[in-house]
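Submission sheet (multi-component)
Chains listed below:
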Amino acid sequence: MRSVSIIGAGCTRFGERWDDSLRDLVVETGIRALEDANVSGEEIDGLYVGNMSGGRFVEQEHIGALICDCAGLSRLHVPSTRVEAACASGGLALRQGVLAVASGYSDVVIAAGVEKMTDVTGGVAADALAAAADREWECFFGATFPALYAMIARLHMHRYGTTREDLAEVAVKNHFNGSKNPISQYQMEVTVDKVLNSPLVSDPLRVLDCSPITDGASAVVLAPTEEAKKYTDSPIRILASAQGSDTLALHDRRDITTLDASVFAARRAFSMAGLEPKEVDLAEVHDAFTIGEIVAIEDLGFFDKGDGGRATREGLTAIGGEIPINTSGGLKACGHPVGATGIKQAYEMVLQLRGEAGKRQVEGAKVGLTHNVGGCGGTAIVHIMSR
Amino acid sequence: MSTVPRFWRHIPQRYNLVGTHCPKCDEYYYPPRAICPNCRRAAKMEDYRFDGKGTVVTFTTIYNATDDFKRQTPYNLAIIELDEGPRLTGQVICTPEEIEIGMRVKPAFRILGKDGERGIIYYGTKFVPAEGSV
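Outcome: structure written.
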């Protein structure tokens, strides 16, 4: 197996991009990534695109061919594959690209992600997202996506003493980080009081505990590490790519407050990279809901089970803390265009490891981890990368 | 709008809580599973009808629902552990103040919703507090 590096990365501004279609977003991010990687169309021999629900959000399937076409690669007949694992579609597209280059089947591969979510009304978007849960045995009985995470939060609070304020602290931190990130959907900071007084969505989760509906696209360009220097002075090496699965429905899990798919993927990634959690300098984790970040930093091994709330409260996950989490603003503040999120996490990590993250730069960042979750833990993808 | 068979085929499971039981592992499954995740395919699964008594493991009260459930808000949704062991997701009919972790519940046959204005009305099991528990 060959070592794989990221040689270029691009991302659109995340937000409600009413002037732009899915195609516009793809072209915008593709051009940025290719210019950053300094590669031409002729060199690209594979394309993977994460997209959760083009069919529901813009009534378009066959996104693989569409993306290849929009990218101007159709006359070169570059193989293009759409990858779907709900909100982990982007992370899975990255993993497919890594596998393709590592295996030797492909040399220069684009791993992209896109979701255009604001072309449908809020109710339709919520229902499309609910399809990441178990349609027949959860949604049929009235479950929504926030409801499932709310039930995780309720039990975490009951069992470990995590407080409502601890959840709010995740949003406060991530909005602060997002306010330092030019692509972030939300540029405003929030306070604990503001989170606690936002409308209830699914008790105990409130509006400001939830990631927003977002349009956006991101792309990274992959190449064998031994050839990466041909394209860039600052390649980012993928040290590990790991994936885990679990039951589709939350009620069937071994433990409602643990995402075993994350635990499995993280253990495998750390073993592949030959690293311990304490050797990671920063991480982008899947905070679709504030409780998601608290559970993630436990499941990934950064903190003991039940200790995520305290760690957040004490500022250990802030920039300048023990392990900065979600410097981009996370899904919570930077936005969550579901298919693009996993690639955006890699984009943020590339900036951080190159030292190009501006006001949110983590000093001396050498090793970063990205963690992308599909549904409420049916799929988890973990990548570890270094400069 | 969906076709009738989509709802029809789950009538035994949703109306009468019919799940499955693995005779080898003596494990019970609801919703039903064709393959036991414990022994995988060592034994043939058999149907098992649950009586539906169970305990609330965790819960939420939903204030913001999808279009299909908007009219019912706020409503309680819980993960319930049946006395035989398996867990399921279902609504608990009581006020948000009444529901709590550890509460005993029993099943109730109810309308769950309808598929649009002209579509099928579908039924299934919700849960109510078991007597003496609240």
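Remark: Residues 93 and 128 of chain B are 5 Å apart (CA to CA).
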